[in-house]
Amino acid sequence: MRAERSYLVLTVLWFTYFWLFSCQQLIIALMPAIQVSLLLSTAAIGLLISLYSIGFVSGFFVAGFLCARLGRIKTVVLGAVIMVICIIFLSLSTDYFSISTLEIVLGLSTGIYPPAGLSLVSDLFPSKERGKYIGIHEAAVPAGMTLGPIFASLTLNLGLGWNGIVQLWIVPSLIILISQLVFFRMKDDKPSFKDEPTAVTPTKRSSWPATYLLIFIAVYFFRGVANSEVSLLPEYWVSDLGVGVGVSAFIYGIMRVFAIFGQVGIGYLSDVFGRLRVLLANQILAVLLLIPTSYLAFDPTLFASYAGFTILSNSFMPVMYALISDQSKPIERARNIGMVMSIGGISTIISPTILGLIAESYSFRTAWVFPIVTGFASIPLLLLLRGRLKGRA
């Protein structure tokens, strides 16, 4: 009975997470169309993405408070409700100020989910299988990142404006919201596994804050900067490489479908070979693939490097979340995941604006140097992290 309920909760969580990120990427894919419609600069588009990130990171902070007050399941449902309301108002917006405000709230509704959802998934399965199931759960992210841009591309080809596309998105949003009514009636069960790893919980209370800081520097700072570059790639392709808005949105989305396989596979690999070993290999390969993704012409070689980078970029996260869950007591998981994500998420706030300003003043190719250098700088910090947790991860 517990196993059946675990899979049911995992399924509902998967589709909720999938929908949240499909909404996020739908809006990002529509940024070139919004830019043309409102006559915005590249820097203004970068600021819009940063505003979304402000809400996203704020959601990590808020999630810990909400989980303690409402429970994790109701926190997940609340995020979905806020997202639906924002989508409705965004579809009616015609000025930069209202779009900017809604971007913050959209980010907040998405950011509320991960600490609550990931904590629930960690509690559903024992540590020896946790990486695999967190990987399955995280596969919802690239799946959503694939659907959102493809939907944008197909509907743009029908001649709909960006407002009309968002209005069409209200229908699936309401379907997801109805599914949340069933989820809302469930209770937050506590884990009952005999193998909950009290031995791997750090013996010194001061060791985990330092570890969180290292994870922030080595993982989230690079990932935040790198993901900011990826979110600006459609702008780069359209403005510098002369690619059509619909084509850029389609490629931006369809290449991410490969990341689904990476998410599922890397969670299993981390169960077998160890979390930190897999994280380090993933990081090195991701940085190397970021270089051709940034500078190749718009051709099949670029598509291959972009697909490889998205596999590695997205698949990093489930292993990191599994590592945090392994090292945390069940009651502290939502708080610890939220703390790591909120500190690390600072880079997702500042990076789009920084990259947009550099691209506006110089060029996109100059702006891409920032995430590449940051990526290489994070590798020795991951090695240091591996030394600190040796024998425990």
Describe the structure.
82% of the residues lie in helices and 0% in strands. It has 19 helices and no strands. The chain has 393 residues and is mostly helical. The longest helix has 33 residues, at 207-239. The protein has a single domain, classed as Growth Hormone, Chain: A (Up-down Bundle), CATH 1.20.1250. The radius of gyration is 20 Å and the shape is globular. It has helices spanning 2-29, 31-38, 42-70, 72-90, 96-111, 113-124, 127-138, 140-156, 162-168, 170-184, 207-239, 245-254, 258-273, 275-295, 300-326, 333-344, 346-361, 364-367, 369-388.
Keywords:
393 residues; mainly alpha; Growth Hormone, Chain: A; 19 helices; 82% helix; globular
Largest sheet: none
Rounded to the nearest angstrom, the distance between the terminal CA atoms is 31 Å
**CATH third-level topology:** Growth Hormone, Chain: A
Shape: globular
Number of helices: 19
CATH superfamily: MFS general substrate transporter like domains
Q: How large a portion of the residues is in β-strands, by DSSP E? A: under 5%
Report the strand count.
0
| Structural class by SSE content | mainly alpha
Strand-and-helix sequence, N→C? HHHHHHHHHHHHHHHHHHH
Radius of gyration, whole Å: 20 Å
